[in-house]
Structures are given as structure tokens and as C-alpha cells.
Amino acid sequence: MPLKPNWRRVASLAPLLIALLLAGCGNTSLNDITHTPNLLDPQGPIALKESNLFWGILIIATLVFVIVFSVLVYSIIKFRARPDSPEPTQTHGNTRIEIAWTIAPSVVLVGVLIGTIATMFSIQQPSTPNTITVNAVGHQWWWEFQYPDQHFVTADEMWVPTGTVVHINLVSDNVIHSFWVPQLTGKTDVIPGHDNSMWLQADTAGWYRGECAEFCGTQHAHMDFLVHAVPAADYQTWVSQQQQVAATPTDALALAGQKYFSSAACIGCHAINGVTTTDQSKLIGPNLTHFGGRQWIAGGVVSNTPANLAAWLRDPQAVKDGSDMPNLGLTQDQINELVAYLESLK
Length: 346
Ligand code: CUA
Fold this sequence. Notes:
A hairpin with a 4-residue loop joins strand 11 and strand 12 (302-303). The strands form three sheets. The protein has a five-stranded mixed β-sheet with strand order 3-2-1-5-8. By secondary structure, it is of the alpha+beta class. Helix content is 37%, strand content 19%.
């Protein structure tokens, strides 16, 4: 029996397919501060070269497509079989044509290869030495950002001065991740046991969304981060602020939160400088010293609002299934205190 597509059934799937496509377009858990990451909207030298290469190849490919299809369509119409038409001229084995259509595509492909290799070499090293260094550590599933020269650690967002080369060491002690900020730079793998590094530069101030681009487990899709490019003076202000230990809250509720945090299971995984004593490198959770100033919670799964934080503390697995943060069975009072405290840590 021949297989006939059931067009009615196929059509009935259309709304589902459209809904799935649209679902990829908007993520309500992310703040509106970033646009959808777009590699065709370059905001730094590497991304600019990569997007130029893309457009160059696209133009060549389009020209080839237009030429080949024009000739094809012309031939189909012009030389179509007619009732009394004679046998067409046979060109099989025509050496000249064989050579021509071997050489022509080779020339095009060699051109694309040269353009690609030249771009790869030109983005290998930055042209200016003016750098800051950041270690980007891939966890399952969030990014830790260490500023080794400035001696502080943050999570989920990385601030950089505009127009400055940022050297990034890529570190993982678990699985392979991939560090990608589409508007600033292409992807580089973060490989356990193999030190990798890259650089980027943001020419325009703004928030740029980064993503993990290598499947790394169930919450790979929620391993986003933010790059915030700011003018040098604002960057310095941010650095000085990050270097401060956590402020002691003045508000009674937040103070109770600090007391609870210091005595509860929280300190087994999280550091708050000035409050906890375990070294950050021995802890599996993000350093929360300036948590209140961050845009996102838990690798961008939700934006950092008191309501989202409360939901996260109440049942982390419901917010991000598979995360290392367990359900601590907190009471509503404890949640309120912790939210007041953590959000006060600007
Ligand atoms: Cu980390 Cu995907």
C-alpha cells in the first residue's frame, strides 16, 4: 500500500509547530536589559570580523545560487522536450566542460577558505595589550567569574570596561562547557583538565547575554550569563564595590536573615565575604557577597526579584530541576529573612 501523507493530520500539527517556534523567541525569565543574542549585531572587534566573514560568504553563496538556478530554469524552459524534437547534443565526456566545472567551484571554495583562515588568524590575538584578566569557571549550571588581579569573585555576570581587551581563562572541573557571547565573540570550549583561553572586547557599553554553547547536562539551557560593558570609571567603581566585604544590614528582618544564613546549611556551599570563613574555592555554590546587585538567579533561570528569590529558596528544584541547591525545608519566616538579607547585599 503506498504511503500517502495525511495532509489533514499534518495541518493539525501546524499550530503546535508555530507555538514551539514562538516559544523559542521569548524567555520571560530573563530581564529586558538584553536583546536576544544576535551574532549579526556585532559590538566588538572579534564579532565584527566574524559577522563580516558571514556576510562575505553569504554574498558569494547567493551569487552561486542565483547563477546556477538562473541557468537551470532557463535550460528547463528553453530546451524542454517537444513532441517532434530531435535527440539533444550529448556532452558526456566533454573534457572542457568537466575541467570548467571542477575549477570554478574550487576557486570559490578556496576563496572562502582563505577568507575563513585569515579571519581565524586575525582574531587569535588582540591588537592592543591593554588587558584585564577574568577566569570564567563553568559549573553545572552557572558561571563563576574570578577577577584574580582584583581579588574578588562573582557569579552570573561579568563586568568589563568598554574598549578594553579582556583576557578570559576558561576553567571547568566537571564537564565540557562552551563560552559564547554572540555580540562580542564566537564560542570557545571550556574543557576539564585542559586550560583554554580567549579574549573579547566590547566597544559599546551595554548588557550582552552569554550562553553555554555545549550540551552539559539537563540544565544546559539555563547556563546563561551577562557581560556588562561600562565606561572605565564605572568599571573601577564596580570593582571597588565588589572588593568590599558584605555590608551588615541595618534592617531588623535582614539582620535576622544574616544570623540565620551564618548558622544554617547555607554556609556549607556559599561564601559571603566578611560573614563566612570557608574559602570560596572549597565551596560548590556561588559567592553571594554582592548577590543583591545581580540581575539573575541561578544561571539566568529567573531574574533576581524578591518574589523569584523566595520561590527559589522555597523549592529550588521546582525552579531549576537538577541544580545542586537542595530543598532546605525553610519556613516562611526564614525565607522572608533570607530574602531581605540577600537582596540587601548590593
Ligand atoms: Cu554548560 Cu551547556
